[in-house]
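Box 3.1 A note on notation
Throughout this textbook, protein chains are presented in two layers. The first layer is the amino acid sequence; the second is a C-alpha cell string describing backbone geometry. Keep the layers aligned when reading.
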Amino acid sequence: MLRAKTLLRRNSVLQRYASSLVVAEHDGAVLSAGTLSTITAASKIGGDISVLVLGKGLDAVAKNAAGVAGVTKVLVAENDALVNSMAEDVAAVVTQVAKKHTHILAASTNNGKNFMPRAAAILDSSPLSDILAVVDENTFKRPMYAGNAIATMKMTNAHKFLLVRPTAFEKAGSSGSAAPIEAVTLETPVTKSPLSTFLGASVTKSERPDLTAARVVISGGRGMKSAENFALLDSLADKLGGAVGASRAAVDAGYAPNEYQVGQTGKVVAPDLYIAVGISGAIQHLSGMKDSKTIVAINKDKEAPIFAVADFGLVEDLFKAVPEMTSKL
C-alpha cells in the first residue's frame, strides 16, 4: 500500500510539471483544424499548454489562439525568414523554444512531418508520429502496418516530440477568455537558412471545404477512367457541400491532383460521410479513411474489398449510379 501511494504521488508530481508546446499551423487569421485537434491531444497529457505561432503579421491568429480552450499562453515568433514555413527555419525556432517544455506537438501534416524530425534531432530526440491516443504523459498509441495494428509506445526522452493524427482527437473549442500573448525571445536570432530556398507555391483554388476538414468527402478511384470523368464527382460534391478526394491509383494515373489523395501516403480524413466511387479498397487507401463515421461504396465489382468496411454498398456501374444520385439531390 505504501509503495502504491508513493507511485501515485510521484506520477502526480510528474504530471504537474508537464509542459506542452503546440507548434501551430495557420492561415494568418485562424488556427488550422489540425492544430485545434493537437491542442486537445496536449490537454490529455496534462500541465500547461503553450501555442507557438510563427510567421509575419500574426496579431489576428495570436488572438485566435489565445481564445482556444486549454491554452495557457501564446508565444509569437515574428520574422521574415518564417513567412514560408521552411523546415530548416521553423526547426531553428522550435528547438530554442522547446528546451523549456517536456512535450512538443504538431499536427501530422506534410508541414509537421517536415520540421519536427529536424527539431527533434537537434535536441537529441526522435519524433513519434501519428499518435492516436494519450495513455499517460510518457505513453502513446500509434498505428502500424497501415492501421492494421495499434502499438503502445513509451517515450523516455527528456523532450518528447509528437506528431498528432488530427482525426483521432476532437477539435478544441473556444474558452470564452483570452490567454496571455508573449513575444518569443530567442538566444540565437533567426536567419534564413541557405540549405533551401522558397521558389513558389502551386495551390488549387476551390470554394469547397478543405479535404481534411470536410463533413462530406466523395473520392474517386481508378474506376473513374479519366480526369474528365471526375467532373461527375464535382457535381455530387457541390450538391452535398463536400470535398473531392481520390485514391493513389487515380492520382498516379493523372485523373486527380496530388492534393486530392487520401490514404497512407496522402491525407487522413474522418468525415461524417465518405463516398468511395470506383475504389477497390486497397489497404493503403483504407488507412486514410476507415475512421469515417459512415462509409458508402459504389463499385460494379461485388467482390471489391471496399465493401468489407462500407456501412452501405451499391453494386452498380458508377457512370449510371452517380448521375442518378446527383439528379435526385
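Residues 2-16 form the longest helix (15 residues). The radius of gyration is 22 Å.
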